[in-house]
Backbone:
DNA sequence: GTACTTTACGTAAACGTTTACAATACCCTA
DNA sequence: TAGGGTATTGTAAACGTTTACGTAAAGTAC
């Protein structure tokens, strides 16, 4: 049988209260001598705290729940690293709940699990809940924060890159390089996609460009490959892609049909993960600071007031050609 | 205040025992009428079960803990998908504990967290614990299983590919294609690496090849790039790489110095993730079935006796050249 | 010595469930 | 009607902690 504080108390001749105080380090309430004795006996017995009992009496667990989508893009390790790091600085554990791929049922289950565990905060990364789940979260009294998704609703916490800024910066850069026939590819039809479209169109407008070209997709490599087909009859000179994976798909499919990047087609991808280095040529990207997004989201959900938008930067690699005017 | 079964009991005029029975679906112990009433009231009150209380009295939580390394390789989504799917079939929740990158302290913390939560099983993916942690696990009485790592110790559960088979198959294939100067690159110095070396050397020996060439690394893209430098003075015609990322690194660094793949150098990578499609040329790989590794590991840890080794297969893509003899 | 303060510890209630056991209600049969 | 069974519900203990409150012991000051 697993030893409890009762066993330790019996063995050391003190009450369970004292054992508890020592074990949970309520310093100043016990003598060094008893501390030493209890710690020794606890070790001897191989004692482990029962988290369930602790959480039951404390009514809140020192744990942040991260609900994660199985996105075909791979930004998540950066985000998680950031979350993990900051959470452990704040004395919080982290549990990750997996919500499949836009699977409403799994998502709901994950949210309920988090609520039933009365975690101290919920982080939803790249997740768009339906209204029912959103009210569920709101009514729970547990703070939650969207990560890498900006809902643009009052009083809803969120940490992400500024999607409008991402695409408008990409447009600015491409225009600077002489491009005017610029497409946006692989975007989703939800909040993120909508915001990126807004930034894209604002960017074009600012430069007096009137023709836009938008293709939807799902952030995956395969999606990128398919999208290239749609671009074949079009005469764009540059494409901004919704993810590195989309860019990689377009790039490879293009090369297969003899379109050279960047000579015949320029590509600016959004994300800036290691994928950008793996392709040939390397992908110029609007790079997001996923680590910082993760760490700031922990601050948000723990009630520290920090920035909602984390800055992005353009990293020039090899997939954009400077056009002569 | 969050409602409890007590509140429901009070409102519906039954005892908490009955409420509990309805809510935990002890079918046959309550009437349909009370069930309906209790369910309705529970919904009205926005009741949520308190997991801590449940776990406390049940002494075991219906949760599998997955302890995860931040490997520079990206096989984990496949593994996790498999784990998640199978776990939910078996009515188990999944929590993921992140152990950083070969960070003994974080790993220890993760293991302790899992034990303190008295989970029903612990899955260690791509993790090699030190002796202290291993005894900790053994003494805990909680079943644990290594995933994607084979320790080759009696009575230790494990699900992985057969590392010896991976490299020997790779050697077989390369020899078949006419190669005899075959290197192994990016391997680690621990169990996985050792096993792959064994398979590699056995493979060479089986074909009467006496010269071997082994370079160590850490599975990352950068590590692959560095490794290429070491191969420059050597005259190997083919390299088996420890991961797709290593292969990508070697490939790109090679192309930068004018070595063409596969014309001048053939590459067989281990893993077979999407990375193999992203590089130019595509990487021929020994592909692991990560999804199945994940799902089988759940079976293992839940006490079902399943295979330890999950088969791999060679997928021929574009990075191996057939040599004339 | 008393009176007071501080330190260290003990007692017992509380957290929200589950479940063994006991009790009641109901139905059926003879 | 009694007797027996079954279906449904209630009572109360248990799970392993934390912590408010009380108390004993030890120290301090006069």
Residues:
């Amino acid at each position: 049988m697993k030893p409890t504080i009762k066993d330790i108390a019996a063995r050391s001749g003190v009450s369970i209260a004292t054992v508890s105080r020592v074990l949970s380090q309520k310093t100043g309430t016990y003598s060094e001598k008893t501390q030493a004795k209890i710690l020794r006996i606890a070790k001897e017995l191989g004692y482990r705290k029962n988290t369930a009992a602790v959480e039951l009496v404390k009514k809140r667990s020192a744990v942040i729940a991260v609900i994660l989508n199985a996105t075909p893009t791979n930004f998540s390790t950066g985000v998680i690293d950031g979350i993990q790091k900051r959470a452990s600085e704040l004395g919080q554990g982290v549990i990750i709940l997996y919500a499949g791929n836009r699977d409403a049922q799994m998502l709901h289950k994950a949210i309920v699990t988090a609520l039933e565990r009365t975690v101290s905060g919920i982080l939803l990364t790249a997740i768009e809940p339906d209204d029912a789940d959103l009210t569920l979260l709101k009514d729970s009294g547990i703070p939650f924060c969207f990560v890498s998704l900006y809902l643009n609703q009052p009083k809803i916490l969120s940490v992400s890159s500024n999607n409008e800024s991402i695409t408008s910066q990409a447009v600015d850069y491409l225009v600077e390089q002489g491009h005017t026939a610029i497409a946006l590819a692989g975007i989703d039809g939800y909040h993120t996609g909508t915001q990126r479209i807004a930034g894209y169109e604002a960017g074009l407008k600012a430069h007096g460009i009137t023709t836009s070209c938008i293709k939807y997709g799902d952030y995956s490599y395969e999606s990128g490959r398919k999208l290239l087909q749609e671009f074949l009859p079009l005469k764009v000179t540059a494409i901004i892609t919704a993810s590195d994976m989309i860019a990689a798909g377009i790039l490879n499919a293009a090369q297969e049909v003899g379109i050279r990047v960047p000579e015949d087609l320029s590509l600016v991808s959004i994300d800036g993960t290691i994928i950008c280095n793996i392709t040939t040529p390397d992908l110029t990207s609007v790079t997001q600071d996923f680590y910082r997004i993760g760490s700031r989201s922990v601050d948000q959900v723990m009630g520290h007031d920090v920035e909602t938008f984390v800055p992005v930067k353009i990293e020039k690699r090899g997939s954009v050609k400077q056009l002569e005017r």
Notes: Residues 59-159 of chain A form a domain with the Rossmann fold fold (CATH 3.40.50.2300). Chain A touches chain B through 47 residues (CB under 8 Å). The CA atoms of residues 7 and 69 of chain A lie 43 Å apart. The first strand of chain A starts at residue 61 and ends at 68.
